[in-house]
Amino acid sequence: LELFSNNLSVINMGELERYREGNGHHFELLVARHPRFDELRKAIDLLERGGHVYWEIQRPNAIKSIKSGKIKFKHARSYAAFLEKMNFRNIELHWHRPNFWSCREIIPLDGSAALNYAFQKGHSNLKGRLKETAGKTLKSSGLLPYYVNCFSLIGKKS
Fold first, then answer.
1. Model's pTM, two decimal places?
2. CA-to-CA distance for 94 and 46, rounded, in angstroms?
3. Residue 3 — φ and ψ, nearest 5°?
4. Which of 142, 154, 58 is nearest to 103 (CA)?
5. Dihedral sign, CA of 59, 146, 133, 94?
6. How many C-beta atoms surround the C-beta of residue 157 within 10 A?
7. C-beta of residue 157 within 8 angstroms of C-beta of residue 50
8. Does residue 79 contact residue 55 with C-beta atoms inside 8 Å?
9. From residue 74, how far is each of 43, 79, 122, 140 by CA, in Å?
């Protein structure tokens, strides 16, 4: 971001109160990496009307959560509903596969064609074919948005 910005402020979530105390700070872009909902609400207050949010969600691995009995997954769209309540529009969800750090693909979760393409790659080994079948099954059953553990949202504040 530093390379493409005329003015960039990096603010720690713990420093938000200082900016919220009537200093007149408003920002065009908010990049939020794994914040709590209360932190995100405070940060959104600093975003100017027409500004954009990029919000990364990192959830525990679904398979490991199921095995441990700790299943607390929300549909990925529920995060978009949170932004809609905060007056955001044109919200897009993107799956970062396999995760943010070693991302090989960014797939729109609302784009059926993109998801179909991601799951129709010709895999030659058994592991690849099993993943492909599992992905197609999760997509067709409507469970994929519960399963993805690394996804982002982009929205515009109205």
1. 0.80
2. 24
3. -70, -30
4. 58
5. negative
6. 18
7. yes
8. yes
9. 22, 8, 31, 18
Tokens of 142: 């409507």
> What stretches of the chain adopt beta strand conformation (E)?
27-33, 47-58, 88-97, 105-108, 150-157
Q: Output the six-digit token pair for 107.
A: 């797939």
CA distance 92 to 59: 18
- Residue pLDDT tens, the chain, 158 long: 666 667 777 777 777 777 766 666 778 888 888 888 888 998 898 888 999 999 999 887 655 555 555 555 578 888 999 999 999 999 999 999 888 999 988 999 887 788 877 777 666 778 777 777 877 888 887 777 777 889 999 999 99
